[in-house]
Amino acid sequence: MYNQLTKFGHSVAQLAFGTIALAAVTLTSVYVHSHFAATAFAYLVVILLFSLMGSFIASSALSIVSVAALTYLFTPPTFSLRIDDPQDLLVLVAFLTASIVGTRLIRNVRHERETAREIAAKLRQSEADLRDREKRWRAIFEHNPVMYFMVDEAGTVLNVNTFGATQLGYAPDEIVGLSVLQIFRDEDREVVRKCIGECLTNIGQSHTWDIEKVRKDGSLLWVRENAKAMLWADDKPIVLIACEDITERKRTVLALRRSEAHLAQAQELSQTGSFGWNVATDEVFWSRETFRIFEYDPETKPTQQLVLDRTHPEDKASVQDVMDRASQSQDFEHEYRLLMPDGSVKHIHARARATRTASGDIEFVGAATDITATKQVEQQLRRSEAYLADAQRLSHTGTWSWDCNRRRFAYRSAEVSRLFGFAPEERVTLEAIRSRIHPDDLALQQEVQRRAIEQKAGNFEYDFRICLPDGAIRHIHAIAHAVMGSDGSTVELIGTHMDVTEQHAARERLENTLAALRESEQRFRDYAETASDWLWETGPDHLLTQFLEHASAAGVVAKGVIGLPRREIARDVEEEPEKWRQHQAALDAHLPFRDFIYRTVNRRGSSTYVRTSGKPFFDGSGNFLGYRGVSTDITAMIRADQAEQELRKAQAELAHVTRVTTLGELTASIAHEVNQPLAAIISNADACLGWLGRKTPDLPAARSSVEWIIEDAIRASEVIRRIRALAKKGEIEMVTIDINDVVKDAIALVTRELANHQVTLRTELAPALPAILADRVQLQQVIINLVMNGIEAMQTVADRTRELVIQSSLDGMGRVQLSVTDCGVGIAEDDINRILDPFFTTKTSGLGMGLSICRSIVDAHGGRLSVVRKQGPGATFQFVLPLHEEAVS
Amino acid sequence: MSTPLISVVDDDASVRIAIENLLKSRGYIVHTFASAKEFLESPQLDKTSCVITDVQMSVMSGLDLVAEMRARNYDTPFILITAFPNDRVRAAALGAGAIGFLAKPFAAHMLIKCLDTALQKHRGGTGS
User: With contacts defined as CB-CB under 8 Å, which chain B residues touch A672?
Assistant: First the structure.
């Protein structure tokens, strides 16, 4: 339309301007009187010129106007449209033809030119479009969120889009020229090589694979690659690869898989299977766990009938009922049992909710849980509750809970009632309970509870007494703790009451026992303190661990002995190795030892003798733990002993001297005793010669003579033996002997003496006396001494038989007793107490040591020498000796 | 002449037996006594040709026996033997008229010699 209007405008303008130009030419021509032909030519030029404006019609109109003007003005007749001259007509025709053809040609040329210009414009336009499109495609290529790679046969990247490069953290030109393998992980490179190889083998065919790419910074990127090979310039194959970032998808898939696994695991762990049931289509879906619970093969197509098949016969009706009701799109929840093929029973809790599917069907989505274990736990719980009740009853322990706000018991186990003397089922008021608490304890109990409520944390314990109606007292130990409410205040006290009446009694008994034990300990401590100077204890290694000196003996042992073995405390180990070896053996054998004596030094550095006794002690399993024992400082005793030893030695010396002196006094008697057998021997020997020297030798008599010789020789040697024994200066030798034998030996030595003094000896020796432990020689000396004294005392007796009596007997205490009685002058009353003292004598000769020595000897034997007052003349000396212990037993 | 009877008094049995044995081997008839009292009370008192007695004996010593015999008018010869030979006893013995005084142990031939002397004297005595 616009074009048409423009064209029309152009035509009008062309016509208007053409007409004006023609008019001008006409005027000019008229003015100059130009030739018709020239005017025509001028007209032709104008028309041709204006035809350049395009409108053929306007050009034609101008041509016609020109023709008319020429005809009218320039052809004769002038001012007439008649043409008289044919030539003019010809010119006019030529003119018209020329103008028409001319304008036509010009139009054509113009048209051609227009067309060419249009084409050129179009061409320009399409070029711009192309550029534009390329730019767009390039943008698409570059920024399309797909990574594009172009790779040559060798795997070198020929091209990559910006997105692709950016995704990998490179600038595009950094990647171009690289081997494509560099953007893959080492371990994936072989796969990439293979995939590209496949593409190149099958040109034009698409290949897809998922793989991880490596970013410039080393991070990984999951991509799905679509690749295809194609022939490029020079028929060289290239591979185009489009990569899509599927990291997120991979992650999602992974997450999905994981969540599926979690769900499956959760189902398995919770033993809950899920199911779906489309009531309309009766389509059923079961999760894996559901299959497991119902023990069906997961490949089985699940149906509601399968549920019914497994249902316990007793529960079938109810399950069927639930299913029927579900058909009316009601949510359901129920419990039922399954009877499994192996005969076991499972408890199932199922609940489902009706939902509506997109297609408007009712579908149940639900869960079925295997609650067999829960059921069992429930049963066990019920049983435990029963046990607990039993336990409470048996242990006399009740539990309770006190509601602090309502100030009443929230809970009280049956045993609490029982403890307070109520029947468990009896309804009891708080006042009734309070009334049974011992009045003295009520306030305390309430105070403790009040503090517990305030204090809030920790357990609190208290004891109180319950007074039962029958008057009995029950001791209760209560333990409780506070329970906090959400506002931080104490809302509840939870506790137990335990009947500790028996424990209470037992504790009292224990306390009594402990008191007795303490007393006993003190007693033994007293014993130990009086019997010893200190107590000690050693460890398993025999090192001293404890050392407890009694106050009286402090300072006896040097300081710093703790941690030492006894042999290091002692100072006589080297002097008496055998004693210590035996002691060590006893310690190593864990044997008790008694009265082990050793020498050490005291704090002042002087020698101290210690007597110690110890016994091993062991733990419950019999493991040796060490020794415990007592020690006593016996230095004084040892010194006294040593002094006594010295005294004994001196006494022994003295005894020997007196013995020898006595022997001297007995020389005559002894010579007699020796000479007697010698005389007999000589006589018999001569007799023997006599018997043999007869004409007919009397051999039997000669033999008898020799036999007597032998007997007499023995007797002589016996006498000599006795004398030698008596004269011997030997160590005291304590042996078990019969006192009667000693008496007989002594008598043998004094027989002649008695005879010489005309003293008759009478012996009254009690048979079968127990043996005594004594030194034979010393005892013999005592007896001889007493006999000699007796002989001497009877020296002056002329008016009566000089009789000496030696008696042996058992005294009232079972000791052996020996007495020597004479009928001599007797002892003056004044002398009786001194007669046994040294240097006391009533004789004109002698030292007065005899009886004194006798007394020492008897004392040394543990006996006692005494003078017995006697009715009538004479004196009796007697001594008693204790029995030898072994002989007694 | 009948074989003389010898009485031996000694409280020591072995000495008694030994002297008896010795004298018997020489062909004497011997009687032994354990004490002076036993001898004094025996029937052999009158028939005894010689008394050999120990000096030290309890109750009655050999010297006492001699004194007692003499007191009873027996002049039987004595030989005293003793294991305690001292001058006092020897003097007392010889003073009491003993034929011999022998210290134990004595040689047999000494006793025989004393005995022979005593018997000779006794025989001679009775004879005279």
Answer: 56, 83-84, 104
